[in-house]
Design goal:
By secondary structure, the chain is an all-alpha fold. The chain contains seven helices and no strands.
Length: 122
């Protein structure tokens, strides 16, 4: 799997990422580091524990990383969740639905990156 194929699998914009970071090597470096970031785990724990302030910070961090790396699909869902949490959370059902979408998009991204990592190391 190439980096470009990884981007297609995770719902990202490879050309935008290259345009922003100017080097495939640099994009690859940060894509591989994405799985080591603890923001997603923090988001899960914070929402499960009812800590919306911490959940907002975690969602905002995910949104920022996805923006920088052009992970378009996860950027969209994490942005919507961030804005809902910024406003105090609103309807718990809406937060739950958006969180489910973030989880789905994150899993998709993580699986694509893990596949890319495994093939790169082989």
């Amino acid at each position: 799997m190439t980096l470009k194929e990884c981007y297609a699998a995770l719902g990202g914009d490879y050309d935008e990422a290259i345009g922003r970071l100017r080097s495939e090597r640099l994009v690859q470096k940060f894509v591989l580091k994405f799985l080591d970031d603890g923001s997603y785990d923090l988001l899960c724990r914070s929402l499960e524990g009812g800590n919306q302030e911490e959940a907002f910070r975690a969602a905002h961090t995910i949104k920022g990383v996805c923006s920088n790396l052009a992970f378009t699909k996860l950027l969209d869902s994490s942005s919507r969740l961030t804005e809902l949490l910024r406003e105090g959370g609103g309807d718990p059902e809406e937060v739950g639905k958006l969180f489910e979408q973030v989880q789905e998009d994150y899993r998709r991204a993580a699986q694509a990156i893990q596949s890319f990592r495994e093939e790169a190391e082989a």
